Amino acid sequence: MATPLDFLDFVDTNKDRFIQRLAQAVEIPSVSGDPAHRHDVFRMASFLESQLKQYGVETKLVDLGTHTMEGESLKLPPAVLGRIGDDKSKKTILIYGHFDVQPAQLSDGWDFPPFQLTRDEKTGRLYGRGSSDDKGPVLGWVNVLDAHHTLKKPLPVNIRFCFEGMEETGSEGLDEFILAEVKKGKDSWFDGVDAVCISDNYWLNTRTPALTYGLRGISYYKVVVSGPARDLHSGVFGRMVHEPMTDLIALMSKLVDPKGNILIPGVDEMVPPPDEEERKLYRNLDYTLEDVEVSAGAKITLSDDKASILMGRMRSPSLSLHGIEGAFYGAGGKTVIPAKVAGKFSIRLVPPQTPGNVDPLVIKYLQDEFAKLGSKNTINVENMHGGKPWVEDYKHWSYEAAHRATEAVYNQAPDYTREGGSIPVTLTFAEALGVNVLLLPMGRGDDGAHSTNEKLDTSNFIQGTKLLGSYLYEVGAGKKA
Ligand SMILES: NCC(=O)N[C@@H](Cc1c[nH]cn1)C(=O)O
Ligand SMILES: [Zn+2]
Ligand SMILES: [Zn+2]
């Protein structure tokens, strides 16, 4: 079904208003991983709910309970549900997105205040935390609602929304809610859903739109080494006591080698190597080493072979070291022996890996390696959160609709990609609802999600809004089974 011209014109003529709305959203620092910002995640839930309401969506805020973070008991931000349309002759699409963001501080190296949308007039780039991940795409759906409400046009499909505020911190509480809700059958908010669409990832490069049919899973660990009762003076205690930081660095250096090989026995080995046909798939994608170098901002690829690089992101597990809590990191030369340090690292998982079969290998390996150190300190390994990997059937009508919509908006066919990141709820929806899930990204590969100077190009925001709307029209054109 051709997307109506008045919808497409509306998106073009309301560009500035849409950017203004994104600016309002970016100004709310809804950092889910920082207890000090929890009230902002709640504010962002209210902002989003009021946006949906004003365009005729029936909404509900779902209390997801409480959880503990940094030893503090906190209320989880609510899930924001929405429902519009109940026409039995139309398909029903469930749209998921998240309104929380990763932490960001100017001192991390941002060129702009992270919680203020800054528009570069020359390039059209919209800088700000969450602009691409995931406030821009979430507001893309709101823009589609805005257009239809204002133009008094019926939507081509029934829509259900499920937006969460804890995605960047393990989606706590959401799986339990979805599973309990689905059990309600006919009374469930998700009853009658034909397919799920998520816009929360990125094109592979800066040129070619993409449809994404796979995600890596994740297992996130915290390894705590404790020793003295308090921080010590290194001049007084150095070479007299076992130092927690020394033990931790020794352990962390045994997790992954500089070439990216995971050193925990059994983890890399779980994944079967690709055959020639699969390698060809990666060779044929529109991607160059330069694309990685541009988005990473340096010439630091692990290999010069494009297929190996792409497989590293899409079909291999990876282990990344993220940080050490409790370590001295400030200016100056403090001569401290930290009493307790916690190393944080995560493993991105691919089939057949799951947190269930990888966690025991990681925990046993760390305990065995710690025993080899002969240290009198103590160790505790904790899995902070996890999610399974997901791979979808991309020959489904929902992907076909997205393919046609992409060609209509961008005049080019999309890349079919697997994403290196994780959105654990994807698999929950796929399994609990038994329907196809499509990832339809709005942003580009160089958006810098989770990084400094995160941005969304104005053209991606505007064309992306058209893409989301066109996808709904293409789905609407298909017959309801
Ligand atoms: N856009 C999806 C995304 O960024 N997901 C996060 C999820 C996550 C898991 N643990 C912490 N965050 C990702 O890092 O892939
Ligand atoms: Zn995201
Ligand atoms: Zn993210």
Automatic annotation (TrEMBL):
CDD domains, A to Z: M20_dipept_like_CNDP
SUPFAM superfamilies noted in UniProt: Zn-dependent exopeptidases
Residues annotated as the enzyme's active site: 100, 167 (proton acceptor)
Gene Ontology terms describing biological process: proteolysis
Sequence positions that bind Mn(2+) 1: 133, 168, 450
Cofactor annotation comment: Binds 2 manganese ions per subunit.
Protein name per Swiss-Prot or TrEMBL: CNDP dipeptidase
Organism: Lactarius akahatsu
